[in-house]
Amino acid sequence: MPEKVTIADVARRASVSRQTVSNVLNSPDLVREETRERVRQAVEELGYRVNQAARRMRTGRSRLLAVRIEQTQDGMNVFDRFLHGLTDSAAKAGYRVILYTADDDRSEIATFDDLLGAYEPDAFVLTGTHYGDVRTSWLAERELAFVTFGRPWGMPEGGAHPWVDVDGAAGTAAATRHLLGAGHRRIGFIGWPEGSGVGDDRRSGWARALDDTGALERRTDGSAAEGEAAARELIAAGATALVCVSDSVALGALQAGPVPVIGFDDTPVAAAIGLTSLSQPLSDAAARCVGVLTRLLEDDSPDKPDHVLLEPSLVIRRTA
Fold this sequence. Notes:
Elements (H helix, E strand, L loop, with lengths): L6 H8 L3 H9 L6 H14 L5 H8 L4 E5 L10 H14 L3 E5 L4 H14 L4 E5 L6 H8 L3 E5 L13 E4 L1 H14 L5 E5 L5 H14 L6 E3 L4 H13 L4 E4 L2 H7 L7 E4 L3 H6 L2 E4 L2 H17 L8 E4 L2 E3 L5
Parallel strand pairs: 1-2, 1-3, 3-4, 4-5, 5-11, 6-7, 6-8, 8-9, 9-10
Antiparallel strand pairs: 10-12
Helix pairs in contact: 1-2, 1-3, 5-13, 8-9, 10-11
């Protein structure tokens, strides 16, 4: 049986102290990047494995972050890019990500309870925020660390808990200005039902750029089929270009007629078919979520919660 690799072996290979190795594994921000890379290389070369049970007893932490897997819409899913970025950023900070599924807020809260009993995650990353979101209050009441990828819709002054989000209004405003620059004046918007925090935010950018009353607007369930039907109605009403709340809706709108169409999310499907779309900085958002949580876990009483708002970028292709 091969001899077990110890933290002292890693320290000798990397020419650092055992405390430095421990810092790299547990508090990497305390160590210079050059030293971190040398220690990580030694860990990989020697095949060193951290004893998670021993570390939990020593630090009182599981080094686990929990996040829900999002559902897809018409086979399109942007969440996988966020999840990849979250996993990568968490690993660099010395954490692991555990995944779970849930159908609604109540079932997700029940899952929180199960995870806390079985794995004791240090923190949660919540996605899909919405009006009346009871998940955040459940976690806050129990003084559990969490960050939301999405704003706390309907709460004053950005909310009392930490969040990271993408400025959908800035994105659709940029898309609308692009179409205005191309000479279009009757630009329609195809969105989600009123009351969707994300959908309303994306709609507001289009309306602001046009100073529009909403005449050339249709709401859908987010499917390609309803996107096509809404686009046909808007084109018949005089729209010469369309801004859509998602790539799924835009995919349907493309079937309605030869007018410029812009989607949102920049999915692989958008790239494949040449759809102009707004790209969310998902890797950056994921890294910011991890950064927020590591600061929160290392400081029990931060001055104020982190609120991070990132801007999407317009990826111009043949449809606009």
